[in-house]
Amino acid sequence: MGKKARVEDGQALTGGEDGDKPKYGTPKKYDPTFKGPIGNRSCTDVICCLLFIAFLVGMGVVGYFAYRDGDPLSLVYPTDSRGQICGVSEAVKDKPYLMFFDLLSCVASPYTTLLEFKCPTTQICVSACPNETFAPYTQLFVGALLPAFVEWDKFICDYDFNPQTEYLTGSYQGTDGLAAIFNDQKCASYYLKSTEYASRCLPSFLVDSASDVASAFSSEDTITSSNGESFNSSTAQELFSNAASLILTFTSLVEVLFEDVVASWYLIVGGLGIAMLLSLLFIILMRWLAGIIIWLTLLGLHVLLGLGLYSCWQQYTSLAGMDGADAAITFTTDLSSYLRLQQTWLIIGIILAVLLVILLLTTLCLCNRIRVAISLIKEGSRAVGKMMSTLIWPIFPYILQFGFFAIWATIAVFLATSHQATYTVSMDDNDTVAPADNDTCDHTTFATDYPNTTAVCTFQSYALKDYVLYLQIYNLFGLFWLVNFAIALGQVTLAGAFASYYWAFTKPQDIPAFPLFKSFYRAIRYHLGSIAFGSLIIALIQIIRTMLEYVEAKLKGKENQVVKYVLKCLKCCFWCLEKFMRFLNKNAYILIAVYGENFCTSAKNAFFLLLRNIVRVAVINKLTDFLIFLGELFIVGAVAVTSFFYFTNQITWVSAYITVPTLNYYWVPIFIITIGTYFIAKCFFSVYDMAVDTLFLCFLEDLERHDGSPEKPYYMSKELMGIVGKKNKFDKDD
């Protein structure tokens, strides 16, 4: 074996004569320095690596500002219109409950209320929920109650707002001023007898089984809100109960579903374990079943088309001589009438005949390439079988992606809750001590800074700062980049491991020890820049697609047909571009793992290599996709159907040993097991797909670089050499 080329750990694959790189636009000549794909590398795309690190630092800065200004507790605990958390913030520490000024606005959008647990009305923190129903707006403007008889002490108003003082001597004098108190939502135009639920004041008849509508107000009473909407006891139940029941039903449903998961968790784990075993078994069996499945499928297609053609001929001849059968085809809504026409069956028969001829000629012309594809698919199964650790590897990129998503979500939540209250100066025209009217001010120090002024620092608005939007875009782009980085890292690592399998001359003796770990080390040590470069391209495309979706959503109902058409075209183009770049990146990562070159060089080399073998690429990709689809369909379907029969007690012999727990909804564990099985199958078959793609590119390189002589032998299997008509020209004693 002394003359045979071997893969030696620590050796590198260069290219061309005397170390010059070959031109990938044309088939390469043999490289006499070829020893294997591993070792003697240098860092690639260093600038992009530094850019990636700088971007991560920027993410950290964004996270700092988000943490400093944000308050996620406002999403969990009741928060008033000024962003103060009831019972937590200093100003409202003694007011733990949230009061809504107009509950009808909550009813109008129950799903928003459910998702955000808030509604578009003024909300204040109160020390206790109201224990009676009171409708001042109705009394004053419907019942014509004189202001002199108004029960001012029953009003529930915004902080530091005294309705009686404002009406008598303030800026809300007169009838119009009194109406403005309610229209400006300075005070609640009505409130109902309420009970605390989740620290929020809700009508008692909704959350307290001991209360009913009659306890809130009598049937003669009609309440009118400041926006003109009215309701009484006969309509209140319908108005409020639908929204409240949605919220309460959702809460109870979550509790019931959680109980079912807890009761059947061990069966769910067992089902997912079976899915893992089935996925592994299917991949291993591919080395024997791949050819059978593919050839039987092709034979079945030929037979089906042939039977269809024969059936059309039978129908055509049977209609001969029948009245009206030879009539021309005309449009009609009676579809069955077409089946009584000879011309219909003639057209269908011609279509089937053309398809049969095309399929037959394609099969004959591509027969050799189909055999190559089958052999590579089998070889992929062997490679996975020799390196079982690769099946577990996808868990690591998934954990990375989950971690990156968690970081993005955390920063996004903190940014989304970094609202800031704005206060402005409200003053008399003759006051010259305080700043100008409507200037911003600090309400915590205003009184001490301007002790001799009659002006006050009043709350104006509660909103996000303008720059938060840009930080959210930066954070979203970071999510895209980091997630694609994790995917690329997983692909480079797997490609390196499977490449070391292919370039082992004698398998498994020449396969390096711990190939997956060594491939991961090489990816981290030398190629982080290239991985960051490739993932950056995908992230840029994704952020552009996201912006196009945002623009389309903002212009919905307003755009003209030209703008709508342009947006659709742009979305389609960038979708296609992303698909193409993902395909190109994947093959570029394979060559990065094999040769250790930078991203641009590897992408160019991969593109031209695939272009020179475009028919082989199409055949193997489609056959591999077909087998993976069958595998996923079989595994998910088998596990889902078995789970259904088990949890419905239709597999009695299993239930005798493993008792089916009593569940509220038996479909809960079935659904979880089915979804989990799908992701497990995707995880396992993604490894298998990467194995086939890596071996395929190595096979193409092997064909172009070597001629089978002792100095430049082929590394492919003997089965592949037999299919492509190649062989190694060694002496028998070698």
TrEMBL record:
Report membrane topology. Answer: Multi-pass membrane protein
Q: Which GO molecular-function terms appear in the entry?
A: transmembrane transporter activity
Among Pfam families, the record links this protein to:
Choline_transpo (PF04515)
Q: Where is this region: Disordered?
A: 1-26
Instruction: Tell me the superkingdom of the source.
Output: Eukaryota
Parts forming coiled coils = none
- Give the record's GO CC terms: plasma membrane
Q: Where in the cell is it found?
A: Cell membrane; Membrane
Q: Which family does it belong to?
A: Belongs to the CTL (choline transporter-like) family.
Function of the molecule:
Choline transporter.
- The protein in question is named Choline transporter-like protein
Q: Which organism is it from?
A: Patiria miniata
